[in-house]
Write a structure and sequence with these properties.
Structural class: alpha/beta
CATH class of the largest domain: Alpha Beta
Strand content: 15-25%
CATH architecture of the largest domain: 3-Layer(aba) Sandwich
Low-confidence stretches: none
Distance between the termini: 68 Å
Shape: elongated
Radius of gyration: 21 Å
Number of domains: 2
Mean pLDDT: 94
Amino acid sequence: MKRLNFLVSLTNNDNDYQQEQAAAAEKAGRRLGVDVKIIHANNDALAQSQQLLHYVQDSSVVRPDAILFEPAGGTAFPQVARAAAAAGIGWVVLNHEVDYIVELRRTYKVPVFAISSDHVEVGKIQGKQFGALLPNGGSILYIEGPANSSAAKERTSGMMATKPANVQVKTMRANWTEDSAHKTVSSWLRLRTSQESHIDLVGAQDDSMAMGARKAFSEIPEGERPRWMRIPITGCDGMPKTGQAWVRNGTLAATIFIRPNTDLAIEMLIEAFKGATLPDRKVTEPESVPSLAELASAGKLRRSARV
């Protein structure tokens, strides 16, 4: 079999999970003997679709054997997907719900599938974390991803299904980066309503946005700053060098480990090119960091300390 060539398109290079996605793809490429090219969309869906079309249609570039991409917007580019499959290019969607996979698999003979973490389960774990950290209930500032992101919607749905009834949630949106959350939370903090709000916990849908909130709190005038800096903050993604390290050093109260999946997708693609039949969708399971039992114990200790 000829040496395979895969293109990996990620949403940005500013988010620790996306950086781990790139690193996992490159490592898998070296280990498995395939060429891997990484490109980034800078959170711009239109730019991403144009980038992908360039590799599908432009004869001046080396055409990949397969494209793996995590959508930067609310669409998984069905027209680009059909053009790629018609050109004999495999198509893998990462971390996004799509409805065209079965059609493409039925129509074309190239590998086509989706692979994702269970984002509803991510949200359910986060809702349980909130309950463990706030055994008496309370108010949460919840930082969601973009409104057009299926992952953000599913995480919110899961969280709302498991959070205790005595936990109230105030939501705001950012764009999966520290800078975007920093700007969103800073803008909110300038409002009078924020000073009148009592927030017991911050929950963010990824660790970089959690750190953006913490940065915004650190810039509050000195008199009010200690109160805000004592608020526990949780995130998602749980990469070993970032989210998990921040939990260990106390910067974050909790995170959720979401396995990078570009390496698994590359392994599956290689098997498909060898003739294996693959499922149209594969889901990986997230894990609470620390465990929910450990969080519950920590919540009880905080409750005892306040009594």
